[in-house]
Amino acid sequence: MKSARARILAVFAITVVLSVVSGCATADRGSQNAFGLIQSRPAHYAPPKDTTFALSTKELVLRDSPTGRETKIFWGLVTITDY
């Protein structure tokens, strides 16, 4: 009985780890998503929606070369834009 539970737990743990690792890494450095907790899109110049707390890197750091990247945290609750 204990060995069956251990096997099921091991398969579940491996599935979760592989899901997290495969969701965070993309080869073309395009859009990235980690279960919706952190979403990142390159060259996404659309304005943030009204239902989010919007932050701009222009407000936080003085830079002259914006990338256009948009990062959403906690399923879009906070949106950080770099443009």
What is the compact description of this entry?
This protein has 83 residues and is of the alpha+beta class. It has helices at residues 2-24, 57-60; strands spanning 32-34, 38-41, 53-56, 70-73, 78-81.
Features:
single chain, 83 residues, 2 helices
Structural commentary:
The structure is a single chain. The protein is α+β, with helices and mostly antiparallel strands and 83 residues long. The protein has one domain. It is built from 2 helices and 5 strands; from the N terminus they run αβββαββ. Strands 1-2-4-5-3 form a 5-stranded mixed sheet.
Helix-strand makeup class: alpha+beta
Instruction: Characterize the main sheet.
Output: 5 strands, mixed
Spell out the helices and strands N to C: HEEEHEE
Q: What's the pLDDT, averaged over the residues?
A: 76
How many extended strands? 5
- Kindly provide the radius of gyration, computed on alpha-carbon positions and rounded to a whole number of angstroms: 18 Å
Q: What's the shape?
A: elongated
Question: What percent strand?
Answer: 15-25%
Tally of helical runs: 2
Q: Largest sheet, order of strands side by side? A: 1-2-4-5-3
Poorly predicted ranges (pLDDT <50, ≥5 residues)? none
Query: What is the count of structural domains?
Result: 1
Q: Give the end-to-end Cα distance, rounded to a whole number of Å.
A: 57 Å
State the share of residues found in helices, binned by percent. Answer: 25-40%
